[in-house]
Design a protein that fits this description.
Length: 396
């Protein structure tokens, strides 16, 4: 699963790194990026709920997961042919449909493959492999932009299109790798599993956990917004092309700390309250976003400051992605774990949509400071709620 996720992340993160620069060149407004990521995240989140439920009913999780990886990898062709940001939106929606569909099913398979005592470590290890792809992908994207830079003299868009075409290779290979390498612990599906009845029967403590995750998610915008922020801050000094490359390298810094932090955080969560640890990660996220507010207030073009902020963004993502799935697996039994993961994904996706869209609109209508400030406030509120839920668990 980690090798598969490595290939898939290498594919779509390569595209993600160059996407803000591509949108700038085709004259898309700043709000377009927020809307693209927000709508795509919403698509991903809603299909997670359905995909998880289907997998619990059918029982054959491997086939469904491989199909999701294939959709995500093949959808990058829309980026390569896009002349308007709406076409990018369509491609992102198709890709994120596949990503959302497979996510909870794969996580349920992952939780079933290990004992409870090392569940945090297992999720952290998977995040580590996944995020290695998110390091390699952006590095390839930045390097290929440099190689094809001479083509921009004839057509400034062509280097970006070439990068998008290259992403098809690891994207499609991810589906092949999952199909050939992953052995599923086959289980009998439950055709009598009712959709709404199963959701209503989820544990009350899990629902309280979802409240904190959802409010935090309302400030947890897409990471491409960080790239766009860095490009805007660096362009006056370095020019658009160089600023796009520097921002892409900073995104690699973010993904590197993400990968390095995932396994230790997962292992630590096996020894203490996962929910309390997650609340601390949420606090770090709020502080990181406030750092971007400071950078815009000061109009800072400091590469060092931006690299530190990107590094912190990677660490808080390691807290979030490693612990939320492991906590859900702790709450939900294997028979309905797919839909449990789907509910978490839906809550996160709705929050991501609100956050990405709101930050994009506020950025365009008011200022980046307003967008990031509102996001940080939502993150902090989510951290407080999660801390209270975790402290109840600890005292019990």
């Amino acid at each position: 699963m980690s090798i598969t996720s490595f290939l898939s992340d290498a594919s779509h993160e390569m595209a993600t790194t160059v996407l803000p620069g591509f949108l700038t060149i085709i004259n898309a407004p700043p709000s377009a990026l927020g809307l693209i990521e927000g709508i795509a995240d919403a698509t991903s989140s809603f299909v997670k709920l359905w995909g998880g439920w289907i997998s619990d009913r059918v029982g054959d999780r491997k086939r469904l997961t491989a199909l999701g990886y294939l959709l995500t990898g093949a959808a990058m062709v829309f980026f390569a042919i896009a002349a308007h940001w709406i076409v990018v939106l369509v491609g992102r929606m198709i890709g994120w449909f596949g990503r959302g569909f497979r996510g909870p099913i794969r996580d349920a398979m992952l939780a079933d493959s290990v004992e409870h005592e090392v569940r945090g470590k297992a999720f952290g290890f998977h995040r580590f492999g996944d995020t290695l792809g998110a390091i390699v992908g952006p590095l390839l994207g930045v390097a290929l932009l440099e190689v094809w830079q001479p083509l921009s003299l004839l057509d400034p868009v062509q280097p970006f299109r070439n990068v998008f075409l290259i992403t098809l290779v690891p994207g499609i290979l991810s589906a092949v790798a999952f199909w050939l390498m992953v052995s599923e612990k086959r289980r009998t599906g439950n055709r009598q599993l009712h959709f709404w009845g199963t959701i209503r029967s989820l544990p009350p403590r899990f629902k309280q956990f979802l409240v904190g995750a959802g409010i935090f998610g309302a400030g947890d915008f897409a990471p491409t917004v960080f790239i766009l922020a860095a490009i805007q801050l660096l362009t006056p000094t370095h020019g658009l092309a160089r600023a796009s490359q520097l921002a892409g390298l900073m995104y690699v810094v973010r993904n590197t700390t993400y990968a390095l932090a995932s396994l230790p955080i997962g292992a630590l969560s096996d020894r203490m309250s996962r929910i309390v640890l997650l609340a601390l990660g949420y606090c770090l996220a709020a502080c990181t976003v406030m750092g971007f507010v400071l950078a815009f207030v000061l109009s800072s073009d400091s590469i060092v400051l931006l690299c530190v902020l990107f590094a912190l963004a990677g660490v808080f993502m390691a807290f979030e992605d490693t612990l939320e799935g492991a906590i859900t697996a702790d709450f939900i039994a294997s028979e309905t774990r797919g839909i449990g993961m789907g509910v978490l994904g839906t809550v996160n996706g709705v929050g991501d949509f609100l956050a990405s869209a709101l930050v994009g609109v506020l950025w365009n209508a008011v200022s980046p400071v307003a967008g990031f400030g509102v996001a940080a406030a939502a993150m902090l509120c989510g951290a407080v709620i999660m801390w209270r839920v975790g402290r109840v668990d600890t005292s019990a």
